[in-house]
């Protein structure tokens, strides 16, 4: 069984709901501090507030970019990334241009990612593939383009409106990117059992909105 400290350091505690209030974000951040999660993941409009709460803690702020469809123009994604970093984000989860990928416009997809990476200026960049919308060949190509662009992670899903992470997808992403990149499993990960399955399949980060419940289950098992 994984230790509670290790698992907490792999969790991106997330609230990217369109109806998230300031109180919801405050709760998210306080929970992230309580359990020492890796970061609190929020929408761009909530980055500055999350940073204000987390500034003197060990928990980072992650912003989603081009969310949730990835259809913003590359220039908009790059600018959105700059603003998010100015507001205090140190990790960016960007949605790749899914339509461009499916149209075999690989150069556009890679440039789209590179624009965010350039704006990030050394901050962690994760590329959300939305695997539920892709065939395996497209998932592989998306991983290769993300790696070539210099991204730090590939991520399975936005968790909004489509099926989330699957064991087979995590295994495919890991086998494609190798050990040089991270793999973030997100979408539908609500239990300790599922989180462990994703880690065993090759995930190095877990995106979830139910991190506290997952940690409580693990801590209960540790104390038995």
Shape: globular
CATH class call: Alpha Beta
* Domain unit count: 1
Major β-sheet annotation: 8 strands, parallel, barrel
Overview of the molecule:
This protein has 10 helices and 8 strands. It is globular. It is α/β, with parallel strands linked by helices and 224 residues long. The chain has a single domain, classed as Aldolase class I (TIM Barrel), CATH 3.20.20. The mean pLDDT is 97.
Brief characterization of the structure:
With 224 residues, this protein is of the alpha/beta class.
For this entry, give a set of tags.
single chain; 224 residues; alpha/beta; TIM Barrel; eight-stranded parallel β-barrel; 10 helices; 8 strands; 48% helix
Outline the secondary-structure elements.
Elements: H1 4-8, E1 11-15, H2 22-35, E2 39-42, H3 47-54, E3 60-65, H4 74-87, E4 91-95, H5 98-102, H6 106-120, E5 124-128, H7 136-149, E6 153-155, H8 167-177, E7 182-186, H9 192-201, E8 205-208, H10 211-222
Parallel strand pairs: 1-2, 1-8, 2-3, 3-4, 4-5, 5-6, 6-7, 7-8
């Amino acid at each position: 069984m994984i230790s509670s400290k290790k698992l907490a350091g792999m969790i991106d505690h997330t609230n990217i709901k369109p109806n998230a209030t300031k109180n919801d974000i405050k709760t998210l951040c306080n929970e992230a501090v309580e359990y020492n999660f890796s970061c609190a993941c929020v929408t761009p409009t909530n980055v500055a507030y999350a940073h204000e709460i987390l500034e003197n803690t060990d928990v980072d702020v992650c912003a989603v970019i081009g969310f949730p469809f990835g259809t913003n123009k590359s220039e908009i994604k790059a600018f959105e990334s700059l603003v998010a970093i100015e507001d205090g984000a140190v990790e960016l989860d960007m949605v790749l241009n899914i339509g461009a990928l499916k149209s075999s416009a690989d150069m556009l997809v890679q440039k789209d990612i590179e624009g965010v990476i350039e704006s990030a200026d050394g901050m962690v960049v994760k590329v959300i593939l939305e695997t539920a919308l892709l065939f395996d060949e497209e998932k592989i190509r998306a991983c290769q383009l993300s790696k070539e662009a210099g991204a730090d992670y590939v991520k399975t899903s936005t968790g909004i409106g489509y099926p989330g992470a699957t064991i087979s997808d995590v295994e495919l992403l890991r086998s494609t990117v190798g050990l040089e990149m991270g793999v973030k499993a997100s979408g539908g990960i609500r239990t300790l059992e599922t989180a462990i399955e994703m880690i065993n399949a090759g995930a190095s980060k877990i995106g979830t909105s139910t991190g506290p419940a997952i940690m409580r289950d693990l801590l209960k098992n540790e104390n038995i």
